[in-house]
Structure formats: structure tokens, C-alpha cells
Design a protein that fits this description.
2 domains; TIM Barrel; alpha/beta; about 260 residues; globular
Length: about 260
């Protein structure tokens, strides 16, 4: 499982206040905590500062990469902000995200074509959110075709996001996403799948419990990566347990190591 640490997102109060004040220490503390907890990428998102995102996103890149030796997930629909962030980034970034929506697709295609990157592609239909697993798979088909043919991307650099939606709004959404993940991985074994995990539990009590269970189910369906809080020890314990049970942890070594380090609480 590829872990994308979600804590440096200005929709979160701590991150918002730190970015507003240019508090590099607070941002770097969030980055280091996530790296130490096992994140493979650090997500950086300044989306709540719409008018200053072009300034803040590259600042976040430089601030975070000054203290952690990880690639970042550059989270923005703004091609100008992304271009500046890519220029500031050391190594190959992940870009989050592109979709079939006309304006976003045509704004970002030239950008991803011209820069080596991993790319999150949302199963958003051209004018609406998907409802069924089949609608998600059809969107993934079209996205993969465009990204490989027009942007020259390798399948293994594409991360399809089936768009997790709250089950509190529609109880069928969880199964639709799980079925979509399975369908996409069956058709495209080299393509990765990714999701924003916590969306599934929005509006419900016991959100962390729901997130843990959904992560295990999604991993069984073929989920490759998740945007989550790696400092949530119970969540990462659930992830390592699930990895062992579905055969992704040879000799149970990662599970045993985590147990011996006292990571299961």
C-alpha cells in the first residue's frame, strides 16, 4: 500500500492557520510526523486560499522538502499553481488531479505531458459525479485511453480515483467504489487505484472505525494507495493486518515487526 499523508491540507484548521502565517515550523512538524509514521508521499494542498494558491503551493513544496526526503502529492486543479509547484519540487511528484471535465482535462494535459509525474485521475464524468461501479469503470477506461495516447503516460504512473462518496448520503456508494476498484484492476493490472479514505464516513459517528473497515475492504478489492492520516495508529494497524490477510506481507514479517514495536494499540 502506498500511503499519501493528508495532514497538510488547508481545509484542516491547523494547516490553514500555519499557511496563512507562513509558519514553516508548524508545516514541517506535520510533514516530519507523517514521514516518521510511514508515509510514502506527503500531500500538499492550499486550495482554500484560491487567490493566493499560486504563491502558497510552491512555498509548501519548498518548506516540506526542506525537512523530509519524500516526493509530494501536489493537490490542486489550478494549472498555474501546479506548474510553479512542479518547478519547486525535487524528484518526481504525484499530481492530484485530472478528470474528464473539459476545462480541467485540457488545462492539465499539456502540463502532465511535459513533466515526469505520477497522476491521480478522478472517475468524474464530464458533467456529473458517478453513481454506479460501471459508470466509474467507464470513466476510468476513457481516462486511461486519453492519458496513454495523448499524454504518453505509462499505465503504472496512473492512479485512478473511483471517487469515494459518503455512505450516509447513499448506502450503495461503498459497494460501488469497491466493485469499481476490482473492475479497474481486473482490466488494467498495471494501473494503480487510489482513494480519499475518510470521505466514506462523512456525516456518521465512529468515523475512524468505518475508515479502518473500508480500507481493509478496499485493499482486498485491489486498492493500491490511499490518502489518509498515517499518524492514526489504529488505522495503520488495520492496514498492516489487512495486508497480511490478503497475502501482501510475506512471512507476516511487517505485521510481526509492527507488533514488536508496539504499534498495535
Amino acid at each position: 500500500m502506498i500511503i499519501i499523508g493528508e495532514l497538510i491540507n488547508t481545509s484542516r484548521k491547523v494547516a490553514h492557520e500555519a499557511v496563512a502565517k507562513h509558519d514553516s515550523g508548524a508545516i514541517q512538524e506535520l510533514a516530519v510526523r507523517q514521514e516518521q509514521a510511514g508515509a510514502n508521499y506527503i500531500d500538499v494542498n492550499a486550495g482554500t486560499f484560491v487567490e493566493r494558491e499560486v504563491e502558497f503551493l510552491p512555498w509548501l513544496v519548498q518548506t516540506v522538502q526542506a525537512v523530509v526526503d519524500l516526493p509530494l502529492c501536489l493537490d490542486s486543479p489550478n494549472p498555474i499553481a501546479l506548474e510553479k509547484a512542479i518547478a519547486a519540487h525535487k524528484g518526481v511528484p504525484m499530481i492530484n488531479s485530472i478528470s474528464l471535465e473539459h476545462d480541467r482535462l485540457h488545462a492539465l494535459l499539456p502540463l502532465v505531458s511535459g513533466h515526469p509525474c505520477k497522476l491521480v485521475a478522478l472517475c468524474m464524468q464530464r458533467t456529473s459525479m458517478p453513481n454506479t461501479a460501471q459508470e466509474r469503470i467507464e470513466a476510468a477506461d476513457e481516462l486511461i485511453s486519453i492519458l496513454t495516447a495523448e499524454a504518453g503516460m505509462k499505465l503504472e504512473d496512473i492512479y485512478i480515483d473511483p471517487l469515494v462518496q459518503p455512505v450516509a448520503v447513499d448506502v450503495s456508494m461503498g459497494k460501488a467504489v469497491l466493485d469499481a476498484i476490482g473492475g479497474i484492476k481486473t482490466k488494467y493490472p498495471l494501473v494503480n487505484t487510489v482513494c480519499g479514505l475518510s470521505n466514506v464516513s462523512f456525516g456518521l459517528p465512529e468515523r475512524k472505525r468505518i475508515n479502518r473497515m473500508f480500507l481493509a475492504l478496499a485493499m482486498h478489492s485491489g486498492l493500491s494507495a490511499a490518502i489518509l492520516d498515517p499518524t492514526d495508529m489504529q488505522l495503520t494497524a488495520a492496514m498492516k493486518t489487512a495486508a497480511m490477510l490478503i497475502g501482501q506481507d510475506e512471512y507476516c514479517s511487517e505485521f510481526i515487526e509492527a507488533y514488536e514495536k508496539g504499534e498495535f494499540i
